[in-house]
Design a protein that fits this description.
Length: 190
């Protein structure tokens, strides 16, 4: 028995909230690991919307999804997560049971292309406004890179002030790890 590490814990949280037939969002596709994980969770009757501002990330994610023959249940957009809701029909917003963000840069790629506090907070705010009770937004906060500290602080400040009657906010972190270890912020819509 051991405590879940950060990435496995992010998936455990998604599993609790996202089931067959639901809609899920991968707000930062990167190499597509979370997109594929979500595509399996939502099953044939659900749908995953994935977003990344880099073509390279969308291509890598598309290949991963195609290899597993999950293209029918996945739609990818080369655009910011701040525009995510524009791509999901309004009548489906109440079916969005989970969204995941991995903040930072695409591993093995240009370290200057990073998630930014304004876009991240805009996206979260819009999603929280439409997602139903009993849904979750999971943020995996990487913050060791240039720009990461500012985003970490802004996102924590934003999440700390969310009305506790509307959103339950969890922080999951190994507090004795060195080197800017990532942590999770989970926002459950109450
Ligand atoms: N979850 C990914 C995986 O499994 O490989 C890793 C994601 S990586 C840490 C962060 C990604 O966010 C990068 O691919 C980057 O291009 C993307 N990104 C940065 N700003 C973005 C934005 N405004 N909207 C969507 N994606 C963004």
């Amino acid at each position: 028995m051991h405590l879940d590490r950060i990435l496995p814990f992010s998936h455990e949280l998604m599993k609790k909230f996202v089931s067959t037939g639901d809609i899920a969002i991968d707000a930062t596709c990167g190499n597509g690991h979370d997109t594929l994980f979500l595509a399996r969770l939502v099953g044939e009757t659900g749908h995953v919307y994935g977003f990344d501002i880099q073509k390279e990330a969308i291509d890598a994610t598309g290949k991963r999804i195609d290899r597993e023959e999950m293209g029918d249940r996945t739609t990818l957009h080369e655009d910011s997560h701040a525009n995510a809701l524009n791509y999901i029909p309004a009548e489906d917003h109440k079916r969005i049971k989970g969204a995941i963000f991995n903040l930072g840069f695409l591993p093995g790629s240009d370290k200057t292309v990073i998630t930014t506090p304004d876009q991240t907070i805009t996206a979260i705010d819009q999603m929280l406004a439409v997602m139903p009770t009993g849904s979750i937004i999971v943020l995996v906060v990487y913050h060791g890179h240039s720009g990461g500290e500012e985003e970490k602080n802004r996102v924590i400040e934003y999440a700390s002030y969310l009305d506790q009657k509307l959103v339950h906010v969890l922080r999951y972190q190994f507090i004795n790890q060195k080197n800017n270890a990532p942590f999770i912020l989970a926002l459950e819509k109450a």
